[in-house]
Design a protein that fits this description.
- The structure holds two protein chains of two kinds.
- Chain A contains 17 helices and four strands.
- Chain A is mainly α.
- In chain A, the strands form two sheets. In chain A, strands 1-2 form a two-stranded antiparallel ribbon. Chain A has a two-stranded antiparallel sheet with strand order 3-4.
- In chain A, strand 1 and strand 2 form a beta hairpin.
- The radius of gyration of chain A is 23 Å and the shape is globular.
- By secondary structure, chain B is mainly alpha-helical.
- Helix content of chain B is about 75%, strand content about 0%.
- In chain B, helix 4 packs antiparallel against helix 5.
- The longest helix of chain B is centred in the last third of the chain and has 24 residues.
- Classes of the chains: A mainly alpha, B mainly alpha.
- At the A-B interface, helix 12, helix 13 and helix 15 of A face helix 1, helix 2 and helix 3 of B.
């Protein structure tokens, strides 16, 4: 397993070297994508293994592996036409992997921030996005760094999250959380761009800082503000026919951040929503917001079992997000054919939608009934499809429309 | 899912919205699912059927507001349907589950479930064919919101 952890970082570095040597941009992008897919396979193996693996100053735990797998899948799905320097995508992926794996057995806060600075720089330089993207990411990183440094000065430890749960470091945690939210907002301003790599990194940072903020029963104000932000992003009007954000990715991820600090036990649902948001970065498909359904259902159950005004307000805001995303998906044009490079993300998305209860790394979620229902719905849909295809098997049907017979006089004319 | 009482009521709501091909229908169906979650504390259709088998049909037992919330949820489902019979049947069976859908362990519970399903399917088919779509959607969403409010008040 140690070798796999090394490969998760070595593969993107090798990809960057190959991409630098290749003269054609298209082939260079393909080299970086191949390296990213190798890295995602390694992270996935580490995730399935589920144990804590440590090599030198790097480690892998289930949450680290999940975030790494997501980042690699997003890197593999990058739109080639938007990339100016393909090698820098691999550099950004390698830096993101180092950020996620920083620390011997637990996450090293300053290691995360230092590697993320490199990742932000490389991903911004790879495609030269607007100044707005770079500025938002920069401010987010600065806030997160301030939070980590403040935590260090208070506890004499770079560790994230702290093992000492009794101490109150909510302010420092909140600073890191706000920084992570800004990082996510910067990364979701465009679809399938190199900067989208920062979404899983931002979510990981938030997930590690969330216990500091959540403490015993969540932070109502932060949860409501983040959920309201998600609703605002989901409802944001499109300018010149183009939305200001990758709507599903941004809204789902912000809802996930809100769930991290919402009252009650909503960490599992938050991780499911974060996974949906990350996969939405890799898939340019109008209905991709549907990936948030299992997380949304789990969040509804968690909020209902907790009860109270804050849970109700967060629930209403999440409902607004769901409605806005559904309306946006209904308005969209037909889906373009997905690229082959997005196939692994598609497969994982289908798995998330049909059997989220099997995603053990997210922790306890009440989705047993969901799994049974989704399996039955899938089986029923497949059965209906087979019956419809069987009933519609008519020689004068689709075949005749697609391949019309020659006119009677055609042979006579030909001969 | 609705026929066998297996699965998740919120997922059922989403799938019903997809079947109806309408955002308002989906919203009303999910609101009906939230009523079930608020009243029974679970989204499992199996648990819903089990609870109704033990304490009686949800629309006829318990405090008045909670019973009324179940009727509102059923109304939301019935008014979210379309004119086609297969879709009306699915919405009708789901509505019957919410009001009177006990787990089938005896002839009595089977009879209750069958009767409720037949009535609900007939009502859904009537609504789909006769009530103007926009009016039906508005009634469905309002009934769903009213059901959630009843659960919150109770």
């Amino acid at each position: 397993m140690g070798l796999l952890l090394v490969l998760t970082i070595a593969a993107p570095i090798a990809g960057a070297a190959v991409a630098t040597l290749l003269p054609e941009r298209e082939r260079a992008v393909n080299a970086t994508r191949t390296a990213a897919l190798v890295a995602s396979a390694c992270w996935f193996a580490l995730l399935v293994d589920g144990s804590v693996v440590s090599v030198s100053r790097l480690h892998s735990a289930p949450l680290v592996a999940a975030a790494g797998c997501g980042a690699a899948l997003v890197a593999a799905a990058v739109d080639a036409s938007a990339v100016e320097r393909p090698a820098l995508i691999s550099v950004a992926l390698a830096a993101t992997s180092v950020a996620l794996a920083a620390g011997r057995t637990t996450t090293d806060g300053i290691g995360v921030i230092a590697a993320l600075v490199v990742a932000v720089g490389a991903s911004v330089a790879a495609a030269r996005p607007s100044v707005r993207v770079a500025a938002t990411a920069g401010v987010g990183l600065a806030l997160a760094a301030a939070g980590v440094l403040s935590l260090r000065s208070a506890t004499n430890s770079w560790q994230l999250p702290l093992t000492d749960a009794a101490a109150n470091h909510r302010g420092d945690g909140l600073l890191i959380l706000i920084g992570a939210a800004l990082l996510v907002l910067a990364a979701t301003q465009q679809t399938r761009r190199p900067v989208a790599l920062l979404v899983p990194a931002g979510v990981f940072l938030a997930a590690q800082a969330a216990p500091l903020v959540h403490r015993a029963d969540g932070l109502a104000s932060a949860a409501v503000v983040l959920a309201a932000g998600a609703a605002a992003v989901a409802l944001a009007p499109a300018r010149l026919g183009q939305a200001a954000f990758n709507r599903p990715a941004a809204a789902l991820t912000l809802v996930a951040l809100a769930a991290f600090v919402a009252p009650g036990a909503a960490r599992g649902p938050a991780l499911l929503l974060a996974a949906a948001g990350t996969l939405a970065c890799a898939l340019e498909w109008p209905g991709v917001a549907a990936l948030g359904v299992p997380g949304g259902v789990a969040l509804a159950i968690a909020l209902a079992s907790r009860g109270g005004t804050t849970a109700f307000v967060v629930g209403v805001l999440v409902g607004v997000v769901a409605l806005a995303l559904a309306a946006a998906a209904a308005r969209e044009e037909a889906a373009p054919r997905p690229a082959w490079w997005t196939a692994p993300a598609l497969v994982l998305g289908a798995w998330l939608l049909v059997a989220p209860g099997t995603w053990g790394w997210v922790g306890p979620v009440s989705l047993h009934a969901y799994d049974i229902g989704a399996a039955r719905a899938l089986a029923g849909a497949a059965l209906c499809l087979i019956v419809l295809v069987h009933l519609g098997r008519d020689p004068s049907g689709w075949y005749a429309h697609v391949f019309p017979p020659d006119s009677p006089g055609e042979d006579a004319v030909r001969h | 899912m609705a026929l066998t009482s297996a699965g998740d009521v919120l997922l059922l709501g989403v799938l019903l919205g997809v079947a109806a091909g309408d955002i308002e229908a989906g919203a009303a169906s999910v609101l009906a699912g939230l009523v079930v979650l608020g009243r029974f504390g679970t989204t499992s259709l199996g648990a819903l059927a089990g609870a109704q088998h033990v304490v009686g049909p949800a629309g006829a037992t318990g405090p008045v507001l909670l019973a009324a919330s179940c009727w509102c949820a059923a109304t939301a489902l019935v008014f979210s349907t379309r004119a086609e019979f297969p879709i009306a049947a699915v919405f009708g069976v789901a509505a019957a589950n919410v009001v009177a859908g006990p787990a089938v362990h005896s002839a009595e519970s089977l009879a209750v479930r069958l009767a409720a399903s037949l009535v609900a399917v007939a009502a859904a088919w009537f609504v789909g064919g006769w009530v103007p779509t926009r009016l039906a959607r508005a009634i469905g969403v309002l009934a769903g919101i009213l059901g959630v409010l009843f659960v919150l008040v109770a």
